[in-house]
Amino acid sequence: MLFLIIAAVVVVAYANGGNANFKGVASLFGSGTTSYRTAVNWAALTTAAGCGAAAFLATSLLKTFSGKGLVPDALIADPLFLFAVAAGAGATGLLATRLGFPVSTTHMLTGALLGAGWIAGEVNILKLWESFIRPLLLSPVLAVLAGGLVYLILKTLRLAPDHRTRTLDALHFLSAGAVCFARGLNDTPKMAALLLGIGWLHGSTGIILVAVAMAAGGLISARQVAETLAHKITGMNPGQGFSANLATALLVTTANYHGFPVSTTHVSVGALLGIGVTTRQAKWRTVLPVLAAWVVTLPVSAVVAAVIFVLGRQIS
């Protein structure tokens, strides 16, 4: 069971890398500022830096996604429960990545915790709302508003030109790196928390394991989601892409500081959509299926985790 839990967490982290690593650099690729390969390498490097920082700066998220307070303490140490949560989130993430939908690892883990927890025993509904659901509902709305507002402000100040400049390129790369760093900081503890119950976080071993798997997923399996994010949410020029990245980095970093489990996916896509709404370039034929995938993600991962937990109980 120890091996199965570790393997399932690696699958979750790999799927997360393939689905989410490119979110910070999508505007670099989508605006024509750089190539896909350069963008994905920059994402891997800066995400890894965020993963490393998570070992020191993200203790509150580790506690939240261990399930403490959401389900009984005895359940958190149950290997079958941990495996069901990781497997439910991992299977959902791999499917979404294969289909090219940028979905939320936060949603998948929340759904898996909820599904397995509900089958296993009591779920703290108040904790579910305050620590999970409320931040996840608010973050995309705030991101749409922030994306549009940041762009309008920068455009007014002539800091978001329609064409590339050397200064803009430098700022664009830095903002993309900041988003990836914030994502690594935000997502790593959510997945590493699944290893708390088996005592695998001593010496930051769990953080390192998750970071390596995320990097591999981002480098190998990001292409499908990259095309969706870069070219199918909204048309964008370099100034607009920089504005979306800046808004995303500000929101995710603020959430990390306060320990709120927001979805980097929702924030980054929301910021891009905010730009698209402002410039009237939003591609709703793609946006609507992506939004539908967000709605489906949580219940799918909940059902998968619940089924795995029930089957595991019957086998054991």
What does this structure look like?
- It is a single chain.
- The protein has 14 helices and no strands.
- With 316 residues, the chain is mostly helical.
- The protein has one domain.
- α4 (59-65) packs across α9 (166-192) and α12 (238-258) packs antiparallel against α13.
- The longest helix has 32 residues, at 125-156.
- It is elongated.
- The termini are close together.
Brief characterization of the structure:
The chain has helices at residues 2-20, 26-30, 36-57, 59-65, 73-76, 79-99, 105-120, 125-156, 166-192, 205-221, 223-231, 238-258, 264-279, 284-315.
Topology of this structure?
Layout: H1 2-20, H2 26-30, H3 36-57, H4 59-65, H5 73-76, H6 79-99, H7 105-120, H8 125-156, H9 166-192, H10 205-221, H11 223-231, H12 238-258, H13 264-279, H14 284-315
Helix pairs in contact: 1-6, 1-9, 1-10, 3-9, 3-10, 4-9, 6-7, 6-14, 7-14, 8-12, 8-13, 9-10, 9-12, 12-13
